[in-house]
Amino acid sequence: MRHGLFLPPFGELAHPKYLSELAQQAEAAGWEGVFLWDHLVYPDVPQLVDPWIALTAIAGATRTIKLGPMVTPLPRRRPGGLARQVAALDLLSDGRLVLGVGLGDLRGGEFATFGEELDRRVRGEMLDESLSLLHQLLSGARVERRGKHYLVEGVQFLPTPHQQPLPTWVAARWPNRAPLRRAARYQGVFVIQVGRPEEILELRSLLAGFGVGDRPFEIVVAMAPGRDPGPWEAVGVTWYLTELGPFDLRRAAVEAVVAAGPPKTRT
Known about the structure:
Elements: E1 2-7, H1 16-28, E2 33-36, H2 51-61, E3 66-69, E4 72-73, H3 79-92, E5 99-102, H4 110-113, H5 120-138, E6 142-146, E7 151-156, E8 168-173, H6 178-183, E9 188-192, H7 198-209, E10 218-223, H8 230-234, E11 239-243, H9 251-260
Parallel strand pairs: 1-2, 1-11, 2-3, 4-5, 5-8, 8-9, 9-10, 10-11
Antiparallel strand pairs: 6-7
Helix pairs in contact: 1-2, 3-5
């Protein structure tokens, strides 16, 4: 099992330069990944920095850790622009980018504030279509596509990312089945609101039924500091993220967690 940090770029962390310095500290302390929340606005958070700019700074300041948005809501992103960002960031990081994707969260008003699509079914359609289109664009092939939500007329995006295919983790709010079916088509699942390690066994059974098979596939969870990662490793979790925030983030407290290194198994 690998260990990463799951950080909202909010409050005292809302500066790309500071986040890049924090990622350097994490790399030195033995963490294997740094992943940032992707939001435009968030309730009761007055300071928030763009995660993609921060990830670019992190990519330039580190050498080994994985990095990426966790997760970027594709229904409010344009696939063409995102494909260019993804390719550039994966090249800059020498193939360390992981793309986390999902429907997006309506609770903070982020979609309504900017007039984005609110209907869950429609956003699901947009997510599926956008994911397929995104990977087509990242392949370097010439793309002609006239879908329900997106149109592409004969473009070829070069250069391609360093990684082919680009590792993509799909967010799934447990115990919903539809996002697990979607995740099974890609390289991993980021499981949200899972409460007990035993639930991962059921999740793995569902993924097997959706066709994951024996190929490499990441199962990712995020937990607060101080939890024992051992029971999660025992049921097949491959990435254990330590989650900080989102409110009242203090640099000193975050730095203490980072400096202590990945949590140790106690059982």
